[in-house]
């Protein structure tokens, strides 16, 4: 199932400057993560963005989890 969820995450150099997005739509993964980190619930996001599906949100979280599994991180600027 994880492999199928990750198919929701696409990247295209012509959409959002090649950032990972949801299903080729102009919703970058980072945008959805920011919404979730601002305390919006999945239900609120789905209500506000009608073209998103529950599986899209799940795919974003899985994608972020996979990114956190990298072996080393270079210093990142935090704002």
From TrEMBL:
Domain of life: Bacteria
Name the record gives this protein: DUF433 domain-containing protein
């Amino acid at each position: 199932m994880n492999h199928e969820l990750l198919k929701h995450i696409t990247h295209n150099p012509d959409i959002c400057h090649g950032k990972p997005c949801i299903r080729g739509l102009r919703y970058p993964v980072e945008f959805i993560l920011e919404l979730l980190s601002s305390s919006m619930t999945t239900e609120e996001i789905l209500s506000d963005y009608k073209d998103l599906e529950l599986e899209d949100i799940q795919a974003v979280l899985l994608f972020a989890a996979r990114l956190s599994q990298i072996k080393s991180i270079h210093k990142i600027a935090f704002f």
